[in-house]
Write a structure and sequence with these properties.
By secondary structure, the chain is mainly alpha-helical. Helices cover 79% and strands 0% of the residues.
């Protein structure tokens, strides 16, 4: 009963918003596209009375959107937030327009992933025009996560992680930039673009060495880079490992370094049993996730004739 009451109230608010916009003074809203109207208003501006009507309509649409959210009617909530965003854009309240697009995306994400992305892209255009690159970066990261989990389009996910990283880096938020780049490296290796993955892991490892807080993470990044090297060429892998030791001597005392050295030797000897046992011993202490397992299988298939399971 409460959901039905809230939906009826929401639809009533939308009706009131549309009525307030249907007066002769505001007929251009219905006649022209949002872009054309914006250009006209940049020249001639709205009268104070007209702005008041638009503001009232925006509040009606937002109120309706929130009522639809209470009813979990995500599609209608998204539409109402979009209408509020479009009206804010016509009054040059661009930051508010972007915020409403983000709210709309949050609703659409539950039912219509494509529309959610479109709304976030609209918000990104506004935030970049306003010079709010941190906000734009966060939205690119959100789109990347949508393509990563909801839409399962990893190519587009990587593109948005890269763009997010660029914007975060430009705003000197290196921590977030590196988090996004690590996602790029993860999928680059998955797509067998090992050189790109290596470059990212080595870059982040080197930058981590300059921080007393992040220094310990360099071991993981050098380990990942070394495994990617093993997927390409044993000789280059050997040289890379030596280079990592010169940059970070403490790497030699880690279990990761010892595993890489052992795998390098087993690949040269094509010793499948020793390879499998070294991986098993490491995994018994530090559980290998899906990414590591896939990389290790790729290494084994490249250099060792027999292909039994790693475990």
């Amino acid at each position: 009963m409460m959901d039905e009451f809230n939906e009826n109230k929401a639809r009533q608010l939308i009706s009131e918003a549309e009525k307030s916009l249907s007066s002769p003074k505001n007929f251009l809203v219905a006649l022209f596209s949002r872009w054309v109207l914006l250009q006209l208003q940049l020249i001639a501006k709205l009268t104070h009375r007209g702005c008041g009507k638009v503001d009232a309509a925006v509040e009606h649409y937002r109120g309706a959107a929130n009522l639809f959210k209470m009813c979990k009617n995500w599609e209608e909530a998204g539409k109402a937030f979009c209408k509020a965003a479009n009206l804010h854009a016509t009054t040059c309240s661009r930051h508010e327009a972007a915020s409403n697009y983000v709210d709309a995306a949050g609703c659409y994400r539950k039912t219509n992933v494509s529309e959610a992305v479109n709304c976030l892209l609209e918000a990104i255009v506004i935030f970049t025009d306003l010079g709010r690159f941190t906000l734009a970066a966060k939205l690119h990261k959100t789109i990347a996560e949508i393509y990563e989990s909801d839409a399962t389009d990893l190519t587009r996910s990587v593109q948005h992680y890269e763009q997010a990283s660029d914007y975060f880096r430009g705003e000197e938020n290196n921590s977030m930039a590196n988090k996004c780049l690590l996602k790029v490296a993860q999928y680059a290796a998955q797509f067998e673009n090992y050189q790109k993955a290596i470059e990212i892991y080595e870059q982040i490892a080197a930058s981590s060495l300059g921080s007393s807080i992040l220094k310990y993470r360099a071991n993981e990044y050098f380990f990942r880079a070394a495994l990617c090297h093993l997927c390409v060429d044993l000789l280059n892998a050997h040289y890379a490992i030596e280079r990592y030791l010169n940059l970070h001597p403490a790497f030699e005392d880690t279990r990761e370094y010892k595993l890489v050295r052992a795998l390098l030797e087993h690949c040269e000897q094509q010793n499948v049993d020793a390879f499998t046992e070294s991986v098993r011993q490491y995994d018994s202490i530090s559980r290998l996730d899906q990414w590591y397992t896939a990389i290790l299988l790729q290494i084994k298939r490249r250099y060792i004739v027999q292909f039994p399971d790693l475990r």
